[in-house]
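Researcher: Please translate sequence to structure tokens.
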Amino acid sequence: MAPYLVWVELAILLACIVVGSRLGGIGLGAMAGLGLCAFVFGFGLPPGGPPGTVLGMILAVVTAVALMEAAGGLDTVVRAAERLLHRNPRRVTWLAPLVTYALIFAAGTQHVVYALLPVIAEVARKAGVRPERPLSISVIASQQGLVASPVSAATVALAGVLTGANVSLPQILVVMIPSTLLGVAAGILAVLRRGPELDADPEYQRRLAAGEVADAAASGKGDDAARPGAGASVVVFLFAVAAVVAIGLFPGLRPVYEKVAEGVTETGQVEMGRAIMVVMLGASALMMLVCRADPEVAVRGGVMRGGLVALINILGVAWLGSSFFDANQTAIVGAISSLVRSAPWIFGVGLFALSILLFSQAATVLLLVPVGLALGLPGALLVGLYPAVNGNFFLPTYGTVLAAVSFDRTGTTRIGRFLLDHSFMRPGLVATIVATACAVLLSRVLF
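Model: Translation complete:
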């Protein structure tokens, strides 16, 4: 292959990512499909392969979370978080990101944060706390909780890719949980005294004078009666999460089976990825049978819609990336191997930069971590650099960022005049850098 064709193919790949990201929704996966057409039919590249096991794990987890949502379990968890925030309004800048982190860690999806953001904004305003502070770090905490969650698409993807590098899910969690919590703590400190107090903020005072900000209505969610089966669905889901962690921590819990092929009996053990699928699909069935979760409601819910969007995008981007990398592996590895080996932190910068374009931690993992393995980077280092995939906040176009700005009626949480001078930049950079540095150090000690 002519050397210039590699650059042409790379330009096509990047163009599909940029255009797909701007289209939003399933645009990223669909544009990746257009790039695949160009690669396969135009350039004659081998079509690579979609990550079947990873997609299966993500779909199984999304199914369980969607059924918990249909049973009312997510509402129950959010109401509990609301009550905690309302009882401690002056500490909202500390409590809001920690509550957000815990919710995302347990649910494995950032979608639940949309129900919490308006609560954070109103609790802060009523307490006289500048809403920009808890809102900005809560959005960042949701991203940190996502990469620490054992059932998030990103962590499942990382565990699947690093299976061949002898890295287990419990090893990832032992590094990620303390590192991301330290990152969140650093982010809280970065915004704790940010900006003038609410009663001295000129924009808020202008809105008050103009009548643009009305008295906040008390949230009614906390008074709503829990639906039958809601609490049970939370218990079932948390039990499934605990089971996933346990079978990862103790491989002996995974069943051993025998199969006969062409007269030869072979012994094998259930793979971690398939074990996750089995546990989560089993939990999904229990939610329908025991908790009366309506499967039709689950299919129409926000979690399932968001999960399917993520699946389509991951399918397209991962397939497009594998096709490009498989066809040009020798040239790519040869060109950057010496640079990455001499300065491995550059790979972390690459993870951060690509996540800005992809708006997906899972897609970033599936696209770049295999490249890191091919470059000979050890699994421990790749785990340490994992928090660097949280670059979604860098451009103020991500859903949670825009939602936080919209829910803050005081106007303190803002995009800024120059695109990058937005409310999320400082806590995002601080939390990501601290979490990644801590993860790299911990992975060296623990692996």
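Researcher: Any highlights?
Model: The first strand starts at residue 256 and ends at 261.
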